[in-house]
Amino acid sequence: MLSEKYVTPGMNTMDSIQNRISVRRYSDSAIDDYSRQEMERCLQSAGEGPFGSNPRFKMLNIKPLSRDEQNKLGSYGFIRGAHLYILGAVKDQEGALIDLGFCMEKIILKATRLGLETCWLGGTFKRTAFASKMDLADEELLPAITPVGYAAKEIPAEKRKARFKPGSKKRRPWTKLFFEADGKTPLTEKAAGPFSGPLEAVRMAPSTSNRQPWRIIKESEGCFHLYLKEHKIINRFLSKIQLQNIDMGIAMCHFDLVARERGLPGQWLKSFAGPELSGLQYIATWKK
Ligand SMILES: Cc1cc2nc3c(=O)[nH]c(=O)nc-3n(C[C@H](O)[C@H](O)[C@H](O)COP(=O)(O)O)c2cc1C
């Protein structure tokens, strides 16, 4: 039975984006049956990403495994107390990491809506050991996993929201992320019009080492170009997986979900091209 504590009635996408927070200490309680079934359903229907890959996902309960096996899996002490993990695999092809970020963030937001906590892990987990539990095909990667469960200590709603308030060190302000068509003039919320919601949802997204590498320029009404401001050490040297490409997929997921929920027209197109901007790598365009 689903305990009332874990139901969040009426939580829309923006609420779940605001409530999601990286949790690294978990309670020993198993997740309730309803949530477990809902999560399984969500994993099976994660769908295709905007670049055409179909990542696949698996839920892994490490509690029944032998102590020896549990020790082989792990997160170098970053995550404590979690028994349940979601593993995400994808065929290594163009746009695969973006697609994985896009599809896996939908799963993470579903978990948030069910009152469950998560934490994207792209670096601090034993990739080879978890990969052995995923039966990877030759050309498949295991870019990321997340624990899923209840927090060891309840997280106050204010703490969740504080990250996005003006002056918070946890998120960059609009002026550093979103720009007019010249790529230089900051885009105001007023000038973004109805798309201020999807843009704010991008600003709230989780990202590797919280670098927030997304930059967006508004070309015209309803047309937005997404760029990656790459941190080369994080993206190329610290891990074999280009984690900031996953960040781009997460941002596209937030923008897409909020735009759809608010009835705003458009979709992410990869065949379009934004203007060349110095120091930025073009990713995709949102357009009607
Ligand atoms: C693709 C990706 C990989 C991440 N990898 C790790 C990781 O290996 N270890 C970790 O503790 N946190 C990891 N994080 C979590 C980020 O540090 C976190 O999202 C960021 O600091 C913002 O905090 P918030 O999620 O609480 O809003 C990762 C996040 C993303 C999006």
Overview of this structure, please?
The protein is α+β, with helices and mostly antiparallel strands. It folds into two domains: 142 residues, NADH Oxidase (3-Layer(aba) Sandwich); 129 residues, NADH Oxidase (3-Layer(aba) Sandwich), CATH 3.40.109. 32% of the residues lie in helices and 18% in strands. The chain contains ten helices and nine strands. It has a five-stranded mixed sheet. A four-stranded antiparallel sheet has the order 1-2-4-3. α1 crosses α4 and α8 runs antiparallel to α10. The longest helix is centred in the last third of the chain and has 19 residues. The N terminus is likely disordered. The chain binds flavin mononucleotide. The site of flavin mononucleotide has 20 residues, from α10.
